Structures
1.
Amino acid sequence: MFLNYEHRNTTEFCFFCFFSINIINLGPRTKWSNNVDYIFVRNYGGVIERLKDELIVSNRHTAYCCQCAWQNIEGKKMLSAFGIPSLPEGGSGAPGENIFWIKKSI
């Protein structure tokens, strides 16, 4: 997946909340602060200016979120509509702390 240094929607979406997966960057790569939780992404998913408040600079990570989960990805992570563990890269409000991210069909 190509990553750039500004917010953009990817071709992935969440099969649980049906929101697009967002990549949010401020310059060099970023990751979510320890303050981010399910309530934060649920309330502010899609509100880019508010999401940026909880990003910190990281040379190795890229911050992703939908409206029910968040991830700090270093490299690649498998996607599955059947759910994969959100830990240790982030968290989720979905059953079993899983993320249900899949690639959109074009």
Note: The chain is about 10% helix and 35% strand.
2.
Amino acid sequence: MVIKYEIEASINRCLFFIQKGVCTMKTYSVTITETLQKTVEIRASSSEQAEEMVNEQWYKGVHILDSDNFKTVSFEAKALQKNKNYER
């Protein structure tokens, strides 16, 4: 897996710099967004009514989305603060 390799490579680079006495690191906030998707059929007089009816059913727990309904995942990292130098 590419992500795992990149994380391991990054850790190894940082360990090298720790051994040298200095490692520059940032703190990140990473947001993980998963999208679940399910299509249901319903008879209604309009698309608005159909959405409203399914919304009510979903709210009442008629339609439960779980890992079988997984569609996509995304990761977004944002730096929280400026560089910090960690000295040994």
Note: The chain has a mean pLDDT of 84.
